[in-house]
Design goal:
heterodimer; A: about 110 residues; mainly beta; six-stranded mixed β-sheet; B: about 120 residues; seven-stranded mixed β-sheet; four-stranded antiparallel β-sheet; about 0% helix; globular
């Protein structure tokens, strides 16, 4: 059973729109959650992490965590074609990260 | 400064052969992680080192896989009797401290193809 679930996509949004990426997890004890961006053929790059329920904003990115619903999301405002990538959701399990399969985002110019 | 480096960037080998993949972490980083990423999947944890010792090797799929970090810096992932199912991108990451994986910096990966 996968511990982190993501819709593989592709999620297609027009340039300037808000992209909403979602992730659910099964481990109720999970405390820390991460969003990584991975361009095709490249390695993952950390863009956001969140530990507390609620929203965390960083520039055009907002991470949202709802521990009761075991749900974490990433919003990208004013989406740009350069945001087109696979977005990986992960949670911390002791000293390692458990990743979802990723959602492919395509921002259409 | 220099990031995590991995060599080779690509490796093609025949089924049954032995391969070694190398990771050179960021200088001063004590924690080092190996992940494997298959096509269309997220990275899958293999093993993590704190210093020279393997603190968690629970992700290694079987005893054909082994990793070392003899001097607490460079690490080598070793795969014996390779199988076609071992084909994937092998990612290495390092961080300054343990218990803080959000500071993990990933290398560019080694793409392993077993024919």
């Amino acid at each position: 059973q996968k511990e982190v679930e993501q819709n593989s996509g592709p999620l297609s949004v027009p340039e300037g729109a808000i992209a909403s990426l979602n992730c659910t997890y099964s481990d109720r004890g999970s405390q820390s959650f991460f969003w990584y961006r991975q361009y095709s053929g490249k390695s993952p790059e950390l863009i956001m992490f969140i530990y507390s329920n609620g929203d965390k904003e960083d520039g055009r990115f907002t991470a949202q965590l709802n521990k009761a619903s075991q749900y974490v999301s990433l919003l990208i405002r004013d989406s740009q074609p350069s945001d087109s990538a696979t977005y990986l959701c992960a949670h911390q399990d002791t000293n390692k990260l458990i990743f979802g399969t990723g959602t492919l985002l395509a921002v259409q110019p | 400064g220099a990031g995590v480096s991995q060599t080779p960037s690509n490796k093609v080998t025949e089924k049954g052969k032995y391969v070694e993949l190398r990771c050179d972490p960021i200088s001063g980083h004590t924690a080092l992680y190996w992940y494997r990423q298959s096509l269309g999947q997220g990275p899958e944890f293999l093993i993590y080192f704190q210093g020279t010792g393997a603190a968690d090797d629970s992700g290694l799929p079987n005893d054909r896989f082994f990793a070392v970090r003899p001097e607490g810096s460079v690490s080598t992932l070793k795969i014996q009797r390779t199988e076609r199912g071992d084909s994937a991108v092998y990612l290495c990451a390092s961080s300054l401290e343990t218990g803080r994986p959000y500071e993990q910096y990933f290398g560019p990966g080694t793409r392993l193809t077993v024919t």
